[in-house]
Fold these 4 entries.
Entry 1:
Amino acid sequence: MKRSIALFNLATLAALACLCQAATAQTDSQWQWRDGNGRMVYSDVPPPPSVPAASVIKAPGRFAGSLRPIEPGGSPAAGAGPAGDVAGTQPAPVAAAKGDGKVKAESMASAEEAFQKRRAAQSKAEADQAAKDLAAQERQVRCAQSRNYATSLQQNRRIAVSAPDGTPRHLNDDERQAELQRVNASLEQNCA
């Protein structure tokens, strides 16, 4: 019995290793580029001719950059792309068109800055939500305690309060009714 479980576990591990290897091999044959709107595109086929080669970030194979000819000036070769798109209809990023590394570095820095701002805003929103959740839990506990206290007052249990000198004294019937009205009003206002 133990041996069959061990063999099953070994077979499962081998299958998982094969799946991981296949997934890794598949990602090595993918293309990655930025489209005309600046969005990242992942595909297992090359980008259309309307995408400048400078926008291609990852390509499979050793000579992936030499797969498409580029005219001087960074625009793609003349002609129509897939679905009849005329080459050059999508605006190329400024850094890719000029080949200017400084502009690309500035755009990367601004993208990083925007990411940090979004992350800070998300962290703040999560902290605000956690504070709201904690306040709601504390409110529920206070309301449950107030309801229990009101039930004790209604059942005529002996309720002791501290006198000004610190000694305990019990509420009489009139004080009990006034306290019950105060607690019920608080419950209606805060725990409805």
Note: The mean pLDDT is 76.
Entry 2:
Amino acid sequence: MKLLEEKILKEGRILPGEILKVDQFINHMIDTDLFMEMGREFYEVFKDQGVTKILTLEVSGIAMAYAAAWHFHVPVLFAKKIQSLTLGHDVYTSQVYSYTKQKKNDIVVDRKYLLPEDRVLIIDDFLANGEALKGLIDLADQAGSTVVGIGIGIEKAFQPGGRTFRDKGYHIHSLARIERFDGDTVTFCENDPQK
């Protein structure tokens, strides 16, 4: 998605450890116009998949998932990292390792909100090693739901997550695929691995 790539080039910063800092428009402050365009593209790609629910992970995935869900007219279900008193104990649970926070988190969703008949579109802001994606797919599998697609804001294609899950047969559509970082320079992939 040219609009997202331009925004990354203009406002993104590369930090040590191959971390792309995009918090001024994606995961701290949100560019709402950009997000609605991102949601529209996810809709165009997955509109024929019979999506009944969008699944994401709190916190950074919620706004992007909402933008997509607005176009699909379906609910967003976000896996919580912290179990609250209101959630109860009848939940699906998985575990996700966060590279940027250097720790494991249990993630949970209430069983009454993720159902066997759901056709789930997973949306997340980043895909690198695939840890968050693994946890979200695990939750859907526990519920007997069908994952019909995966929408990613930014994929670090030089890390194994995208390849791993494409090899397993998942349709992943990433709006910006980064081939490499060279100092302060971001190079995007030319090809779409789904074609």
Note: DSSP finds six helices and ten strands in the chain.
Entry 3:
Amino acid sequence: MNKDAAELIEFINNSPTAFHAAAEVEKRLKGAGFKQLDPAQKWKLKEGEKYFVSRNDSALIAFITGKDFLNQGFRIISSHTDSPALKVKPDPIINSEGQYVLNTEIYGGPILNTWYDRELSLAGKIVLKSKDSFELKEELIDLEKNLVVVPNLPIHLNKDVNQKGKIDKKKGLRALITQNLDSKESGGDSDSEAELKLKDLIAQLSDYRAEEILEAELYLYPTQKAQYLGPKDEFIAAGRQDNLAMVHASLEALLSSKAEDWTQMAVFYDNEEIGSHTPQGADSPFAGNLIERVIYNLGAKREDYYRIIEKSFLISADMAHAVHPNFSEEYDQNNRTLLNQGPVIKYNANLKYTTNASTAGVLIDLMEKNEIPYQLYTNRSDKRGGSTIGPIAATQLGIKSIDLGNPLLAMHSSRELGGSNDQKEMIKVMTLFYQEN
């Protein structure tokens, strides 16, 4: 059995939202002896020790302080915990024709038609009442049950669906919850006030009371579990592989590491799918401030910070596009990748990916010395690629960087397809990056 692929499947199944992914990471870090730091308190760090910091319950930075960090710098791997999804709006339940639907809005760039006619549930975070308004209690919640569905309009009433398939983002993505079986209404205002409230629904399906819930931040997610696919289990079928596969790989690499002369760091950002412009995103001082705080706490000075940055290296870990067997003409002629053929180094002339010859050479050398297969990817020259955290994080930190990821089919679908062998090879690369002299 492929242990790394099996553990990735379990990780994805336990992580329906970025909040839950961060909680899984935190649980694993604590189990491996990493000490949680309170950003609001004074720190007393030691060289060669393991620590982590959390932000917004959805982003973390974990690190092992180096024994000679002044001269050896930092080795950093960054990934992101969020994935494209349908997010539940405030006061979302609408009574339409005696049927209750959940109003949603689009988070990131999902392939919308893949969310139709799937069993969906709700997960996220709820905020509970407390005596102190500035110290409210927050809890993660996963209702787990097959709870809602976004039903398609029948083809008889939408005859162009297979030709055009345009989606009404205002009301076409509302999810059916239940119906009022006692209703005598046969029509009327489709947007009339709903008798069912979200807090009541949460209370029905959890141990929380409606009156203690102040607010909720919830997402829809497909309840179908991540699983193997193919005659030899060569594929992994699961949503959120972009980018939980890289979160899992970098976490595994860090957990297997021991203290070295350089500081080893894993940054798990949130909100990449919406541009990273948040306090917990890559376009924030989260990582930069933390690096400064760590080295100053260990006795470094401002001048040392600039020296350390020059000696440091960042891997931006985000998934890459595998070539589609039915649409291979959409990809570059030579720089195309396949599932199960190893990690992908991503290039772009306009530096939408941060890779250059110098940074690529470092990882290529590591992989060739250790007989790890690798692939190269660029977009077809007349096509724009997607965004990633690499250019943003590298710019914030002023650090040399490379973009790396595993190949993936159907990226941003609610059911993506990855290679079950690729996770093992990626973890090998990342482990070497952290540990190799």
Note: Residues 288 and 397 are 6 Å apart (CA to CA).
Entry 4:
Amino acid sequence: MLLNSFDDFSPLKEVVLGSAGDYIERIRDMSFDMFISDNLSGARGYYPSISDWYTGEGRRERNEPHRLALKERFLHELVEDVEGMAEQLEKLSVRVLRPMALDPACAEMTSPAWSAPVTPPLNLRDNTLILGDEIIETPPTLRARYFETQFLKPVFMEYFRQGARWTTMPRPMMTDASFDPANVENAAPNIEVPLNPRPSPYDVGVEIMIDGANCLRLGRDLIVNISNANHALACDWLERHLEGRFRVHRMHKLTQSHIDSVVVPLRPGTLLIRSEGVLDFLPEPLRRWDTIVSPVPEVGDYPQYENGDPIPPSPYIDLNVLSVDENTVMVNDACKTLIRTLEEHRFTVVPVRHRHRRLFGGGFHCFTLDTVRSGGDEDYLS
């Protein structure tokens, strides 16, 4: 099919689903801490703060690369759950495409300024933004995911052959000096201030960095969450690139990065939100939409891990649902209260298993890149 995706709720025809194979480890470095700082400074009982993970000398040295091995059993179960999602999508008559597999021999990558393990292409929503008939590869915010879109090349090439536009935003050097906030006044309150950033001969100052999951797509409108100077520069680029085709709206400091576990458009006129306070950040027309406020997660809603295994993603990760159409929503089968809430609002819920979403990060929206939906460049905000 021809590439066509303007929103997250019109009937889904074709989607790329990530792969969890050979997810061996993740690395703690400055890019990781800056990326998930919202959760590291969050509510006790749901997830650890940065001081829970690193105290004293460990906190001062947290910018040193620190590898976190992932248990084999959890990896097998993650793969099972992702493949179960593929089966369910196909049952719903959605064509499922997959990225290339990660060769275990390609375990490490090195740039002039840093090195990192290669992360498999699981959370595809982050490094690509689909706008209508255009593929936009976004500049990565995590070093370990720098080349992640390379695994999508066969998929992107096929859409390109069929007439799709294909653009890559500027790639950052990603030295320590690349990351805002050097000036914390520009940043969301929950952004971690970089500790002990080290100079590099490749420093170019604060750079363009943003994830596709910072953006909410509504027909001809694109709402971009801006939490730091990296995001602001990226929004400058998007405004210039999309001028005349899309209207770009800046949403300031809603959260540290991704918004798809904070505000989720389920259909025209209806939003799923984390709390009523989210509305204060949205463009005025969206504040008039009907809202479904998420039930507050409980600690017992999630698997508990021994030996202090870090679980950085937000407890609201299960708001990361995938709409198959304006009435049908794919939801984690463990979220009984959320399922009941959506059903009370007359949505058809498709429950799918996803056990270790907080250990690995990412929900159903994160794992997918919807490339063909039946919607167009409608005006939802006038």
Note: The mean pLDDT is 85.
